[in-house]
Write a structure and sequence with these properties.
Blueprint (H helix, E strand, L loop, with lengths): L8 E4 L1 H10 L4 E6 L6 H12 L4 E3 L10 E5 L8 H6 L6 E6 L4 H14 L3 E5 L8 H6 L9 E4 L2 H10 L3 E5 L16 E6 L7 H6 L2 E3 L12 H16 L1
Parallel strand pairs: 2-3, 5-6, 5-9, 6-7, 8-9, 8-10
Antiparallel strand pairs: 1-4, 2-4
Helix pairs in contact: 1-2, 4-8
Length: 241
């Protein structure tokens, strides 16, 4: 199985491909399945493909971690312009900024949480960050195809641009005294989360309007970055409802 010519976007995994078939089947140009597998999840993929007149081809060899499902799609537009996103805002904004998340599984999980919370965009730095590769897309379970993901060269300048559009920047820091449950997020908000282990970089922290923390009551001192992202984003969703 070779990547067809002029097709640059590969999506793997049952949930990611299923999301594509439900929401954007027109993006799929080639669909490959492990035809020796027969179960309810696969039957749903097959049903959706047939309903959208998408031909199914035999997946051979079967790539590791693909769950036996691979879709080749038209390339997603890259590097969405942040200024355009800001100019088109019609309600209080919500952004997720990832400051150096290195693990593509964590990146994908953060994107999945961000999409579920209805963020306007996920912002990641060009350097010192996990790439949006097949592993990240699989972990995102299809959310990477429907979420604005903006790659920036200078994170500090990007934060300052957001501030000029009246967006409050909150850095998540375990040592911060203010709890996320005591802050008002009804206004336009951006959360900045640091990378695994290191947390926020000093320069990034200095550009934040404020630092907040997630109260911890057990023996564990910190959360996985994707879990922390989900908690912060859905506190905003809760408050705005």
């Amino acid at each position: 199985m070779a990547n067809p010519k002029n097709i640059k976007n590969t999506v793997i995994g049952i949930h990611a491909v299923e999301a594509l078939l439900i929401h954007s089947p027109e993006k799929i140009q080639e669909l490959f399945l492990n035809q020796s597998r027969h179960d309810e999840k696969f039957e749903k993929i097959i049903h959706l493909a047939k309903a959208n007149t998408i031909a199914i081809q035999k997946l051979d060899p079967i790539p590791e971690h693909s769950q036996g499902v691979v879709a080749y799609c038209s390339a997603k537009k890259q590097d969405t312009d942040l200024k355009t996103v800001l100019e088109n805002l019609t309600k209080p904004a919500l952004f997720l900024i990832l400051d150096g998340v290195q693990d593509p599984h964590n990146l994908g999980a953060c994107i999945r949480s961000a999409n579920a919370a209805g963020v306007d965009a996920v912002i990641i730095p060009k350097d010192r960050a996990a790439p949006l590769n097949e592993t990240a897309k699989k972990a995102a379970s299809g959310a990477a195809e429907f979420t604005e993901i903006i790659t920036v060269t200078n994170l500090s300048q990007t934060i300052e641009l957001l501030k000029k559009h009246n967006i409050w920047i909150y850095g998540l820091d375990g040592s911060a005294e203010k709890s996320i449950y005591r802050e008002d997020f009804k206004h336009s908000t951006a959360f900045v989360l640091g990378g695994e282990g290191e947390g926020l970089r000093r320069l990034t922290r200095e550009h934040c309007d404020g630092l907040v923390s997630i109260p911890m009551v057990g023996e564990i001192e910190s959360l996985n970055v994707s879990v922390a992202a989900g908690i912060c984003l859905f506190e905003v969703v809760r408050q705005r409802k």
